[in-house]
Write the structure tokens for this entry.
Amino acid sequence: MVRVRMLEDIDLEKEINVDSASIPIFKSKMQNYYILIENIDVTSANIIKQEMLSRGGDVAIHKYAINHKVDKTNILLIGSKKQYNLLIQKLKTMNYWDIPKVRELIEKTFKNINIRKWEYTLNAGKKMLLGNNSKIMGILNITPDSFHAPSRIKSVDQAIENAKDMIENGAEILDIGAESTRPGSESVELKEEIERVIPVIKALRKEFPNVILSVDTYKSEVAKKAIENGVDIINDISGMQFDKNMVHVVAESKLPIVIMHIKGTPKDMQKNPYYENCISDLLEYFEERIDYARKNGVNQIIIDPGFGFGKRVQDNLNISYNIEEFRVLGYPILMGHSRKSTIGNVLSIADTKDRLEGTLALTSYYALKGIEIIRVHDVKENYRTIKMIEALRGYKKF
């Protein structure tokens, strides 16, 4: 019987029995890419539009670009990889106006979005592979005031017990923090933070020599002592802004750094935060921070858009829904949404203890998008959710 199917994806060999050598050719034509280039001169925009149209793609530009009533415009390029390749070759012959910059940005975008596996070197020569799956980062709060009360740890023994449970239930990374950075929180004195976190790090490193340990701190002295006691990753909510010596400590250690975005400080970040364009602002921030890190000898970078850190509900949802936009940066992504207030606001749930389902919904979406690290309180539930989503994504192997 003749029939028709609308497809999300297709196994060309199985469904049609094509020559395997032709598959890359077909694949290059099957997916459209939407690339937004911001603030280019209107002459360049009109030329690029015509060049893309002539190759079967399209470009959306400002309605007054055609008659030059505006000087600058954003442009949205729409096309397959093959059409972009043809466009890039043509633009290489046009070294005027903003065209060389646009060509450079398109080339960089495709280069970065195709980087989906990373191998990072950790303390004592251990390796961390990112990109094969979504790794769980379990939260260990050595604090008396973290926003989710059940996550508060009061002793080294309790930290070991919680860590053991997390590891047995699927956590590959443990994130240890000794200062609450919930909205409105006050900073903890350096001495107190060290006294809280270092004994726990020492004990965990001894008890679990192979697990990956991360320290959640923006203070360079805490990071330095944590590294000396076996920590593998520095997780800095300020993106190395609050303590200018942090970049040097990380560079010297040669360990990975999580660069997070925050607007303001934990004390004031939720006092009417506002963005003209949240995604664009964050991308600009990360481009600057990545450049700063690399110029100072820091190359093992993980980015965290900072869910809930100086963001409104709509900002957190925007970032989450469009999380793949951050692929243009070329680095693995970490998301930390667990039980946060956006979930409470969407579901009208005040108590953090009742926000597990909302957390799992976001975890499912991040796993579907292949986010490399997902930072959560409830390891078992999130791990099982991720494994099911990954089975869905890779169902062909079953």
User: Anything to note?
Assistant: Residues 178 and 197 are 6 Å apart (CA to CA). The first helix runs from residue 12 to 16. The chain has two domains: 12-113, 118-397. The domain at 118-397 is CATH 3.20.20.20 (TIM Barrel).
